[in-house]
What does this fold into?
Amino acid sequence: MITEPHLADNFGRRFPYLRLSVTDVCNFSCSYCLPDGYKKTGCESFLNQEEIVRLVKAFAALGVWKIRLTGGEPTVRPDFVQIAQRVASIQGIKKLAFTTNGYKLPERAQSYYDAGLRAINISIDSLNAEKFKAITKHDRLEEILDGLDACHDAGFESVKINTVLLKGYNDNELDDFITFVQDKPVSLRFIELMRTGDNQDYFSEHHLPGTAVTEKLLARGWHLKPREEGAGPAQEFAHKGSKGTIGLIAPYSKDFCKSCNRLRMSAKGALHLCLFGERGYPLRHLLQSDDSSEELQEKIMALMNFKKSAHFLHDNNSGVRDHLASIGG
It folds into this structure.
């Protein structure tokens, strides 16, 4: 058996964090991700519960302790709660999180918490109902904001908001977002729009550099917080007058990849070493039996040799990614 307690690559980075997509399907049609909605491919055979459990056990044996369930929209799976329950019970998993668009969150937040989920990221790209609908094609902002409160009531340890920076949509809302978190114990993270295979024109029109956020925060007395163990790539800013914090995920910034600590699994069982990598490495054939556990671990360890030092977004290379919903963002 492998005794190495941590996954590591050839650049000294360690990987305690796995983003696990459980479906490619999404019920929203966000302009920057799936503007025409999810299109079935005829190959919607996503990992089943048994395959997911075997996969997570293998990663846990290699030192992974944080799992984030993603999609698409992970909660559209009818067995999402059961998946969460089973993953949460696996030895070695210390933190189970998920990312959601907040669909039906007010009535479901408690069941998610009861299933063992302790951290939630909710996508809210505008605090203006009309703009929110224009971006997502859903008039659900009020419902999602109620869901935010429901998560606090349920007992979630970490509640975060993901906001994609979009020039022409929400770039004039930075002040509103900063005010929004002042009395709320949430972390709101602005995410730079990323170019993918199908959004080049959209990217050119709506990309806004993250420096627009950092300059405003620093000018208002916000300060950069130390990075927590197992945290994602966000730079986190705090202010003595705010209960909430503001984060920035800026993949086009210098040395962004130096702090990389996560790997990704697609909903169909392929390991992706980078969000913008050239390929995924199929592992599903090793998820059919408990007897393949050791071979699966060895395969994962061997694949770490192929992880590159950085993405190549600055070279206008976004890999094979057509859209971010296909691998959980």
Summary: The CA atoms of residues 142 and 162 lie 16 Å apart. Residues 1-5 have pLDDT under 50 and may be disordered. Residues 141-154 form the longest helix (14 residues). The chain is about 25% helix and 15% strand.
